[in-house]
Design goal:
Elements: H1 2-48, E1 53-59, E2 65-73, E3 76-88, E4 93-101, E5 106-113, H2 133-138, H3 150-153, E6 165-167, H4 177-183, E7 185-187, H5 193-217
Parallel strand pairs: 6-7
Antiparallel strand pairs: 1-2, 2-3, 3-4, 4-5
Amino acid sequence: MKDIIKPAAVLAAVTFCASLLLATVFAVTKERIAFLDSEAEKNALAIVLPGYSITGTAKTKDNKIYWVGEKTENGETINGFAFISESPGYSGTIRCMIGVDSNMNILGISILKQTETPGLGARSVEIASKNTFWDVITGSAVDEGIQFPWFQQQFAGLNGNKTVQVVKNGDWTPEMASDLVSQNAVSAITGATITSKAVVDCIHKGISEYNDIIKNSNK
C-alpha cells in the first residue's frame, strides 16, 4: 500500500506545483499578452484596409467584433470592413484578419496566428527580401520600406463572393499577380498546400459569416 500511496502523493504534489506555476505565469503575463494582441490587430488593420481610416467597431449578434473604415475617392466616401476568422491548419489554428470593400472584394489579409511547420506552412508569414546575408554583414543592405509577407500579398484584389482557387504555380511573385487575380486564385506555398488551403478556408468562412452583416451595414 505504501508503494502506491507515496508515488501518488509525489505525483499530486508535482502536479499541484506545476499548475500553480502556470497560473502564476498566466496572471503575470496576461496583460502583456493582451497588449501585444491589440497591437498586432492595429498593425493588421493598416494592412487589410490600406488607405482607410478606422471610424469605429461594431458587434454581431453573437458578440463578434468587426471594424469599419472609410476613405474618400473621387469625392465619394467608400466603406471598408475588417473582421477576424479562424480555421484549422496543418499543425494548429490559423487566425486571419480579412479586409473587404462593400462588394466583398478582398483588400488584404493578415495572418495573426499560426503554428505551422517551419520552412513549410510557416512560410505563410515569411517576408521576402532582396538583400542578401552578405549585404547585411557589409552594411550595404538597402531600406526596402515596409514589407508584407509575399504569400499574403496575393489575396488583394480577389472576389470574396466567389470561390478562391488554390493552384500550384510555385511561390508567388508580383509577376503572377494579374493572371492569378483573373482566375480568382492564389498560388500555394511550395510543399505546404494544406496550409495554403487552410488560409483560403479561413477567408471563405469569415466572408460567409459577415456577408449579410456588411450588406445590411450599407443600407
